[in-house]
Amino acid sequence: xxxxxxxxxxxxxxxxxxxxxxxxxxxxxxxxxxxxFENNTAPFEGLRGAFPQSVIAGCSxxxxxxxxxVNDNSISIAVSRFEHTRLRRAIAEVSDANDSPxxxxxxxxxxxxxxxxxxxxxxxxxxxxGTALVAGLAGGLKKDVSIFGGLAGDGSHxxxxxxxxNAVPRRNRVCAIGFYGDxxxxxxxxxxxxxxxxxxxxxxxxxxxxxxxxxGKPALDLYKNYLxxxxxxxxxxxxxxxxxxxxxxxxxxxxxxxILGVDEAQKSMTFAGDMPVGAIARLMRASDDxxxxxxxxxxxSANHDGIGAQSGALVISVSCVGRRLVLGERTEExxxxxxxxxxxxxxxxxxxxxxxxxxxxxxxxxxxxNQTMTVTLLTEV
Length: 381
Prior knowledge:
The protein is an alpha+beta fold and 381 residues long. It has helices at residues 42-50, 100-111, 130-138, 219-227, 288-302, 321-327, 331-341, and strands at residues 2-9, 13-14, 27-33, 55-60, 64-66, 69-71, 74-81, 86-93, 116-123, 146-151, 163-165, 168-170, 173-180, 184-191, 195-207, 210-214, 217-218, 243-246, 255-257, 259-263, 268-271, 280-285, 314-320, 347-353, 355-359, 366-369, 373-380. Strands 15, 16, 17, 18, 19, 20, 21 and 22 form an 8-stranded antiparallel β-sheet that branches. It has a 6-stranded mixed β-sheet with strand order 6-5-24-23-27-14. A 6-stranded mixed β-sheet has the order 8-13-9-10-25-26, covered by helices on one side.
């Protein structure tokens, strides 16, 4: 497995020439770029021309990760040529959140195969219910196929996002890449670093990813009471105070859910993933140090069994825009922590997202996460 990474800056172009010798049907080109490149497609056209045989996948971001750096208004790429692993790309259109299960099922039907090992998913970040998308995809695949990736970002604007479709930025798209073969080694890590505060409350009324009531009371009213003066900055300030949900009393590892929008008239809140009736919800907050420590835990989990001892590892990080807003100037410390914990010689790429998709641990069930650092390590033996 050979891996090359680079980046594109508007004022200076590509950091180095494209490694065109790596072009092949078994080459994956990951492309993470700023929302503005939806209207400046020349860099993507150049990639398609340089790598006509390769599988290209990418999306818009809330920050592009390249090595130990986090950039804005740029493009990060990783070119990975696998020696023993086959790749297949599938695209689905999605019109709204209710269309998410169908899109997931369509992608599963296109990618399912006896030697399918894992699926990378990059989705439009503003019209998709990520929970339903992952459920639809997982329902059509074998239990041991891991699913990872994330929802595209648009800075902190939550307006519109794009996903590459045949190297062209398109809205309302979900792209999935299947990895096939028994020589692939893959590790996953996932950690959020947020802590609970305030009382637990039961979700008593919701519709998919729209939360209406907690303990029989309007959800938005209760949330505003906790935020106090910060409530005037909704929905942006909600990124600093997500909710943790447990689907049952027995669940010990909660999922973190980010608020995407609020409806003042309905007194409801829309989240990036499902808010099931009967689940237990609780407010969360975090410190800079706890978020950075969680990144260290995520890369350690991804490489816990030493799979990264092989040379040529590709490390893919998907973190949340909310974490970036909390960390501010310390954002690069989170990314540096991933690279420091990665195997020597690894190439690191990723993006800040509107939702992260990963198993909680390697071999675990894949799910949608928010406000979480997820790390995937890919190599071959």
